[in-house]
Amino acid sequence: MKIAISSNNGKGLDSTVSEHFGRCPFFTVVTYENNQITKTEIVENPFFQGHQPFEIPNFLKSLGIDAILTQGMGGRAIDFFQQNSIEPVTGCMGTIKEAVTNYLAGNRSKAAPCQESIEHQHGGNAA
Questions:
Q1: Is the pTM of this model over 0.90?
Q2: Residue 56 lies in a domain
Q3: Residue 39's domain spans which residues?
């Protein structure tokens, strides 16, 4: 399983989870096999300066990502990730290691659009 986490810097598992996946400078990509992390990669976000909702889901799909962990994301992006068979998980905070540990332990909530997305009508509903 490959998990991408929106990251504020390139410090790997010690980096902090970015507030919004589309505006993060990096993704930390964690490969999890046989009940352990077997690889950690730092990938620059090629759409850091600006993106359309479908670009990052397509990019992460090309990397073979199975799940994206982040603090916030818009409703249309959630839909695009799901269409690409990538599980979007929002509400993640702390370090990358903490976010991955919580995800793997099943401590996650259903992806929901961030408040900014709802206010700007970027898809998704508060309900």
A1: no
A2: yes
A3: 2-119
